[in-house]
Amino acid sequence: MATLAELTDTLARATGLSHATAFAYGRFAREGGYVSQSGRGNNAAQMTLRDAVNLLIAVGGTGITREAELAIAAFRKLRSISGYGNKIDGPLLSWLKPLGVVDASYVKADFGSFLDFLMNETASGGLRDICRLMPDNPRLRDLLPAKTEIGVNLDVVVEFSRTNPEASVYFRPRYSYRRTDLHAFTFQGSPLLSLGMEVTAYIPVTTLASLAYCVTSGPLPKQLRTPVQIDRFLFPERA
To answer: Assign residue 66 a region: left if phi > 0, alpha if psi is -120 to 50, beta otherwise?
Structure first.
């Protein structure tokens, strides 16, 4: 379990944001009602996985901390679209059934619900387990090693386009010499607000796993001060 101060401390260490900036995102999200609040000190509210998701959305959705509430409201309601040749198949098809898979190409759930699901599965080990099964999919067999591990040779990336707004979740090989999206889920508002310049934010699975760890197991060890150190702690198989 963790307080908001501990959760934002983890966010700062996992992303490289200053502690003041990370806490400001959390404070404005809490003032908007998107983060649990009650008491101070020993009576401070304990954070939930949904609180962690909303904090991630705030950081990904805007570069201005005081806009945290607006960013969370705008991005959580984005709807999944079919496109980019995406195909939901193999083990991923049954894994995503709780979100309502449509035509094996997109999900009924909005972006907020999708990210809630992803955070919960990260915390429970479900994300790790489904990634291990991906080589069983004949379509992906030549793109992944027989032993596939999240954070080692497979990454899950959340990308935010702040100017549209739009968000995407990608499953892709880690450290590939070329970008290969094994599965891609895109969420958009309607209509798009901008078709010109994009300002994007990129959140890797290490950040997702850091916040999930903090909420379920408590703050990360104090000696872990950089994203690289945290990455090696969470995914020791890669070391």
So the answer is: alpha
